[in-house]
């Protein structure tokens, strides 16, 4: 591994001089284009080269739209030369999670049942990103239908962790997180129900934000009045995430819970002064969830960083009683509705764990669902009371470091048996049940070099303050500047191409 965020690829003969561009921030890439030090065509070409060199070892990008991307880059360069107004993402390379539609591009939802599906329209967030000037290079790998925390499916190769290719990248945004970590894309979005933005960020040493419900349109969910699944940004830095949130956020006519606050407030956020900020530290939610001891150690060590920044750090946690059962009820209910036709027609083609979750949802009563919704409301209220006393809750972003890629989920965590693919996600979906925004960002590495992320949770709808705190933390903790061994990944990918067995 290299601790250098830029230039790590120069030692590999398969990389060109422009590849350093791929790990620059959104603002840095944009400034180079606007000053005409580089063209959008050069930037897009560099990213296409990075995909060709690295993705055979990572399997993060499942569909590439090279011809259209280069045509749009040429058009972006021509527009700039004519002096036309340019959007904030003008010419920047984007990748879209393969559960979100991009007009004219294959969208499979991680399922072989949709292997040949080509979307007719852009999803709302995709339309906003493209309208801001970003150029979609392709789609990133997901778990089947996006319901799973390990990016594997029956259609594509499982996404490998760029820091340890024999291990998982997390999910369901694992392809997105791996693409960001390796510089295959810069503008990336995703969705989060049980941690799909947060655990891949932890596994791949990038940043993921689960915003408050209604902040970003989520047309895919089909549950406009149920705020459990949200859409949000990912990036290599907190600043990138804030800038992208300013593009993605804002009301939408299809979303009854949409927030009407001006999204421009997220476009530039300075690091917060953390003097006197009241922090509740709970690496394992006060012992209520199993968290790997190495992860606990890394998260606990952040207390000294926060204290040095002026925070008042105490051991405390929200009361999450009832969150587990209520979340599983609402998730199964959602699955049973969304995939009802799919399970009736293609039951044998679906993963057993997904079939089980769908069938659990089919047996739910109205009373079961109402009880879960009541618990969700109570958790929201408890969180509001908690944040009257504290400004920030700090936990692990994922309960374990990246686990072996052949496993569906870790069988044990710190001696505690994990009996299903949901058990190890408790630390993420407990936060989902409160409706509070949560920011996952790099915190450190295990002794063997596996990434560990920290989860910063703030009061409801306070994403701007949360991002400002995240920027201050990020500046004090250099873990996010450590990048994968790109040259090693390129050699590994070339070996896999030459020797596919």
Automatic annotation (TrEMBL):
Residues 42-467 form the Amidase domain. It comes from the Bacteria. GO terms for molecular function: catalytic activity. It holds the Pfam family Amidase. This is Amidase. It comes from Actinocatenispora sera.
């Amino acid at each position: 591994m290299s601790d250098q965020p830029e230039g790590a690829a120069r030692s590999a003969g398969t990389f060109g001089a422009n590849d350093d561009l791929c790990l620059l921030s959104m603002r840095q890439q944009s400034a180079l284009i606007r000053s005409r030090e580089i063209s959008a065509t050069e930037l897009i070409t560099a990213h296409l080269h990075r995909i060709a060199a690295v993705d055979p070892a990572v399997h993060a990008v499942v569909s590439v739209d090279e011809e259209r991307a280069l045509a749009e880059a040429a058009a972006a360069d021509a527009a700039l030369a004519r002096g036309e107004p340019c959007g904030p993402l003008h010419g920047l390379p984007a990748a879209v999670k393969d559960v979100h539609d991009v007009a004219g591009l294959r969208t499979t939802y991680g399922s072989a049942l949709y292997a040949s599906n080509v979307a007719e329209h852009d999803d709302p967030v995709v339309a906003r990103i493209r309208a801001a000037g970003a150029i979609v290079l392709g789609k990133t790998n997901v778990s089947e239908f996006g319901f799973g925390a390990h990016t594997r499916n029956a259609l594509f190769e499982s996404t490998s962790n760029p820091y340890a290719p024999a291990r998982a990248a997390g999910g369901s945004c694992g392809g997105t997180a791996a693409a960001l970590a390796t510089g295959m894309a810069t503008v990336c979005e995703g969705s989060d129900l049980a941690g799909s933005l947060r655990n891949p960020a932890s596994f791949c040493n990038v940043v993921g934000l689960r915003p408050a419900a209604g902040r970003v349109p989520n047309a895919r969910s089909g549950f406009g009045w149920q705020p459990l699944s949200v859409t949000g940004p990912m990036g290599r830095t907190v600043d990138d995430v804030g800038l992208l949130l300013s593009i993605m956020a804002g009301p939408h006519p299809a979303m009854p819970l949409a927030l009407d606050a001006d999204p421009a407030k997220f476009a530039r956020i300075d690091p917060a002064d953390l003097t006197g900020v009241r922090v509740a530290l709970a690496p394992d939610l006060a012992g209520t969830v199993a968290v790997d001891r190495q992860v606990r150690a890394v998260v606990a060590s952040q207390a000294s960083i926060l204290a040095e920044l002026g925070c008042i750090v105490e051991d405390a946690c929200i009361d999450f009683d009832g969150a587990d059962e209520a979340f599983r009820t609402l998730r199964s209910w959602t699955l049973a509705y969304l995939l009802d036709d799919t399970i009736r027609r293609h039951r044998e083609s679906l993963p057993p764990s997904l079939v089980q979750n769908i069938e659990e949802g089919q047996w739910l009563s109205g009373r079961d669902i109402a009880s879960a919704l009541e618990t969700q409301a109570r958790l929201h209220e408890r969180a509001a009371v908690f944040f009257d006393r504290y400004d920030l809750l700090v936990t692990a972003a994922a309960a374990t470091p990246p686990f072996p890629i052949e496993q569906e989920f870790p069988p044990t965590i710190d001696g505690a048996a994990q009996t299903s693919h949901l058990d190890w996600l408790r630390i993420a979906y407990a936060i989902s049940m409160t409706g509070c925004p949560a920011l996952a960002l790099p915190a450190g590495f295990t002794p063997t070099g596996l990434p560990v992320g920290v989860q910063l949770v703030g009061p409801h709808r306070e994403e701007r303050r949360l991002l400002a705190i995240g920027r201050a933390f990020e500046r004090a903790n250099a873990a996010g500047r450590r990048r994968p061994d790109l040259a090693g990944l390129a050699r590994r990918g070339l070996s896999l191409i030459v020797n596919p067995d």
